[in-house]
Design a protein that fits this description.
heterodimer, A: mainly alpha, 6 helices, elongated, B: Cathepsin D, subunit A, domain 1
Chain lengths: 147, 133
């Protein structure tokens, strides 16, 4: 697909002009597609943005705002619980860098890391993030797990 | 062929197991972490560290020892907690390891699998879940 820079600029402008709630919906949909298909990860971001924006705009015009795919992380719509998807994605991307450590994540933001779980937890509490994801990352050279 | 339907579809991105994001709560404290679906584990077993974050007096719970496949004994203590995952909420006994160092939190049969309708297509990295009522 030969899409020109001015066209991409227009797509970006259109996305940035969306109300905050719809921007969040847009990013959630892109993430859901990426989680559902490894091939989706390799496509240029602006291409994915363009397609998702087109779908979202069509649904806004028709008054239908429900997600077109089942939302795998049902907490995405919950006002009380943070969506775990960004933290899970961070773990997928960065686990190799933090093997053998505990990490505390606020969405896709690393709050603290280290070998002592309680220190990491204390740092996360001091940060003030709501319900951070606290996870141990197995060392890269750990043997396959069988309990 | 059986006709199955589920309330929740979850695509997992982990390559080392079926990792599920969850919130575990006890006595007003809650921690967001992950657990691995493990049909081979008889119960839910969580790390000592997570129990400490929840402020649980771990050794005050119901003592129970588990025999890992590799042999030896894993000493644990059971406590009634709430586990929330993928919009499903369960009150369950979770066994916390006596000592730190358990690499994974396990979502096993008692307390988790036995309370769900559970489908798995590992080829597609997808689990299907419904809470049994």
């Amino acid at each position: 697909m030969a899409t020109t820079q001015p066209v991409y600029d227009g797509i970006l402008r259109q996305a940035l002009d969306l109300p905050s709630e719809q921007k969040v919906r847009l990013l959630e949909e892109i993430l859901q597609h990426e989680l559902g298909s490894p091939a989706e990860n390799k496509r240029p971001f602006l291409e994915k943005l363009d397609e998702t924006l087109t779908r979202l705009t069509a649904r806004i015009r028709s008054g239908v705002m429900a997600p077109e795919h089942p939302v795998s992380h049902q907490t995405a719509g919950s006002p009380r619980r943070p969506d775990p998807a960004p933290a899970m994605e961070w773990l997928r991307l960065h686990s190799k860098e933090y093997g053998g450590q505990w990490v505390a994540l606020d969405g896709g933001r690393l709050i603290a890391h280290g070998p002592d779980a309680q220190e990491v937890y204390a740092a996360a509490q001091a940060d003030g993030a709501y319900l951070p994801m606290i996870n141990y990352i197995e060392p890269a050279d750990a043997l396959p797990f069988v309990f | 062929m059986p006709d199955l339907s589920f309330d929740v579809t979850h695509i997992y991105t982990s390559t080392d197991g079926i990792k599920i994001p969850l919130v575990i709560s006890f006595g007003g404290k809650e921690v967001q972490t992950t657990g691995y679906a493990d049909c081979g584990a008889e119960a839910c077993i969580f790390s000592n560290e997570i129990g400490q974050m929840l402020g649980i007096d771990i050794e005050a719970g119901e003592p129970k020892s588990f025999g890992p496949a590799s042999g030896g004994t894993l000493q644990t203590y059971g406590h009634l907690v709430t586990i929330e995952f993928l919009d499903i909420n369960l009150e369950s006994i979770v066994y916390f390891a006596k000592y730190p160092g358990l690499r994974r939190n396990l979502l096993g049969r008692d307390g988790w699998l036995s309370k769900l309708r559970f489908g798995l297509v590992d080829y597609d990295s997808t689990v299907f879940l419904s809470r049994l009522t």
